[in-house]
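Please fill in the sequence for the structure shown.

STRUCTURE ENCODING:
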């Protein structure tokens, strides 16, 4: 018997990562809304969705949210990939 743990079942890992996605999206949405309100109190109303998208992508005020946006994209890409979820997670954790 080896002391090395066996790799987790990909189905179980996929289920856990799948449950993470909607939770991260809800958190992301709430944080964006909260930060948008704070931004508007300080800088004035953002008039269009397009204007807000541009601000969200490029304004330093929202920079701290971008890693969370990237994590959500990574989770979605991982779930859509043909690779086992465990392999994709291992690659990104190693970075």
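FILLED IN BY: designer on duty
SEQUENCE:
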């Amino acid at each position: 018997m080896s002391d090395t743990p066996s790799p987790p079942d990909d189905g179980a890992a996929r289920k856990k990562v799948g449950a993470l996605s909607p939770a991260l999206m809800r958190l992301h949405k709430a944080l964006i809304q909260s930060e948008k309100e704070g931004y508007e109190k300080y800088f004035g109303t953002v008039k269009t969705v397009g204007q807000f998208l541009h601000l969200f992508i490029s304004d330093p005020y929202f920079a701290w949210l971008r890693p969370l946006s990237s994590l959500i994209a990574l989770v979605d890409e991982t779930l859509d990939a043909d690779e086992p979820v465990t392999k994709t997670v291992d690659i990104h954790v190693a970075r």
